[in-house]
Amino acid sequence: MLVKTKAIVISSLKFQEKSLIVKCFTLSNGLKSYFVRDAFSSRKASQKIAYFQPLSILEIEAVHKNKGTLENFKEIKTAVPFQSIHTDIVKSTMVMFLSEMLHYSIQEEEKNESLFTFLETALTWLDHHDDISNFHLILLLETTKYLGFYPDVSEIELPFFEMYDGVFTLFHGVGSLTEHESTLFKKLIDLKFDNDQKVFHVIERQILLKILIDYYSFHLDGFKKPKSLEVLKEVFS
């Protein structure tokens, strides 16, 4: 079946010497993997590979056989031409980390238009702003809305956040954050992209990042800690 759709690049993996396997989150079909033959061998190889940088947003035409095998692109063009994401060291490190997080988080081949629209809007915001210290934290927390485990905030005034059930509680249990961690988490829940990014210190961001990665690992089978996490910490230290 020939499909025209937007797609966000989640990962690309070199296959043998000349080819790529590219995983995309598509607007029309959710997660899809594509085989790009001779990505490194043609005269325009550098242009071709540039399409598949982490979290690039593409407009693709592809043949979907929907048989659980690798699909094939027919045409590719950039849907949202980023101006700074892939050239700014802080932003490029951030999207490398986020693409790894999404790689381990978006696990099913099913349409999720609301998640796609959120990611597209968020990445466009990132490209046009410089005050971005908390962007990755906000995006990871907001993404849980679309993955089905956003925290229950109906009793957010209670002192402890229980990670396994995703609720605020009166008592500190085995799976609970400390009261200080819970307070930081509450501040993050209230935060939006356009809010003051200096609301957290560096150490507080590191605490929140660990909380979010742990929270994802509690709620997603097969989730792995991203390899780029240490690079991200270095950039934001």
Give the class from helix and strand content and strand pairing. Answer: alpha+beta
Mean pLDDT: 91
How many helix segments?
7
What sort of overall outline do the alpha carbons produce when their principal axes are compared?
globular
- Biggest sheet: strands side by side, in what order? 3-2-1-4-5
Summary, kept brief:
The protein is α+β, with helices and mostly antiparallel strands and 237 residues long. Helices cover 37% and strands 21% of the residues.
Can you offer a commentary on this structure?
The protein is of the alpha+beta class and 237 residues long. It is built from 7 helices and 7 strands; from the N terminus they run βββαββαααββααα. The protein has helices at residues 45-50, 89-105, 113-128, 135-147, 179-189, 202-219, 229-235; strands at 2-15, 19-26, 30-36, 57-63, 72-78, 160-162, 167-169. Strands 3-2-1-4-5 form a 5-stranded antiparallel beta sheet. Strand 2 and strand 3 (30-36) form a beta hairpin. Helix 2 runs antiparallel to helix 7 (229-235), helix 4 runs parallel beside helix 6 and helix 5 packs across helix 6. It is globular, with a radius of gyration of 19 Å. The N and C termini lie far apart (48 Å).
